[in-house]
């Protein structure tokens, strides 16, 4: 005689921030989920060191995105998360940085809730904070920056947006995903009133062993990115704090050399 029919269990989707790359910067909860997960759906920006933390036998599904080259469209990613959860699987959706800062975590959470799938969000250190800390660039400073703004360098209607006032005196501007559009970004900011000599830093591969911090004026941003062959992941930080941190680090280096 067959036993009573048991309803299938719905799994939970965990939207997990992997931080800027260094495994030491994961939250404890993120690390536990990564090490215990049976299914990890991950972005291309998640570092190999963090992916190596997955347990043996875990199913790893890459949904890496690059400019004009997406392994899987966002609608398909949403559908994948819902389908796996409805099949009874707990899913770790692993994202570089933080899921809710330019990570499309909001869209994925909405899709799961609409399908009746439980969602939990595990925040990560966003790349803006990780990169600035690794480069010793304070995004805010009592003497030179009381406002900080995050913007996406790749978005719909970029050229039509008004960026006036986002950077300048007492302000820091952090641009995500701006490498491919560096020339348009510099042109837009100067057209909106920002001085060509405004200092900036480009931070590539933040917190990783191959990290680079490149500095220059706003007008030279396109040449800096192209000449140094900057590649993603990279962040652009614009404002006086970048010049001040450069001076401080130079002083520290001189002192250490003596």
Automatic annotation (TrEMBL):
Annotated EC: 2.1.1.107
Protein name, UniProt field: uroporphyrinogen-III C-methyltransferase
CDD domains, sorted: SUMT
InterPro entries listed in its UniProt record: 4pyrrol_Mease, 4pyrrol_Methylase_sf, 4pyrrole_Mease_sub1, 4pyrrole_Mease_sub2, CobA/CysG_C, Siro_Cobalamin_biosynth, Uropor_MeTrfase_CS
The keyword Kinase is assigned to this record: no
Pfam families reported for this sequence: TP_methylase
Biochemical pathway: Porphyrin-containing compound metabolism; siroheme biosynthesis; precorrin-2 from uroporphyrinogen III: step 1/1; Cofactor biosynthesis; adenosylcobalamin biosynthesis; precorrin-2 from uroporphyrinogen III: step 1/1
Biological process according to GO: cobalamin biosynthetic process; methylation; siroheme biosynthetic process
Residue ranges of every copy of the Tetrapyrrole methylase domain listed in the record: 12-221
Keywords assigned by UniProt, alphabetized: Cobalamin biosynthesis, Methyltransferase, Porphyrin biosynthesis, S-adenosyl-L-methionine, Transferase
Enzyme superclass (EC): transferase
Family per similarity comment: Belongs to the precorrin methyltransferase family.
MF term (GO), any: uroporphyrin-III C-methyltransferase activity
């Amino acid at each position: 005689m067959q036993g009573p029919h048991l309803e299938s269990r719905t799994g939970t989707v965990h939207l997990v921030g992997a931080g800027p790359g260094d495994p030491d910067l994961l939250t404890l909860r993120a690390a536990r989920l990564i090490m215990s997960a049976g299914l990890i759906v991950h972005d291309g920006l998640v570092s190999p060191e963090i992916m190596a933390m997955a347990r043996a036998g875990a199913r790893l599904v890459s949904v890496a995105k690059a400019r004009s080259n997406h392994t899987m469209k966002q609608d398909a990613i949403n559908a994948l998360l819902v389908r796996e959860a409805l099949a009874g699987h707990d899913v770790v959706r692993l994202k570089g940085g933080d899921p809710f800062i330019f990570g499309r975590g909001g869209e994925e959470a909405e899709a799961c809730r609409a399908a009746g799938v439980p969602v939990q969000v595990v925040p990560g250190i966003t790349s803006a904070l990780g990169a600035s800390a690794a480069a010793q660039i304070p995004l805010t400073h009592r003497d030179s920056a009381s406002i900080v703004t995050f913007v996406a360098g790749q978005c719909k209607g970029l050229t039509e947006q008004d960026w006036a006032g986002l950077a300048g005196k007492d302000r820091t501007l952090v641009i995500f995903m701006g490498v491919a559009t560096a020339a348009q970004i510099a042109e837009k900011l100067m057209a909106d009133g920002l001085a060509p000599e405004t200092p900036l830093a480009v931070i590539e591969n933040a917190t990783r062993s191959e990290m680079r911090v490149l500095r220059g004026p706003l007008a030279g941003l396109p040449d800096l990115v192209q000449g140094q062959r900057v590649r993603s992941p990279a962040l652009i930080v614009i404002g006086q704090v970048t010049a001040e941190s450069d001076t401080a680090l130079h002083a520290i280096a001189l002192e250490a050399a003596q």
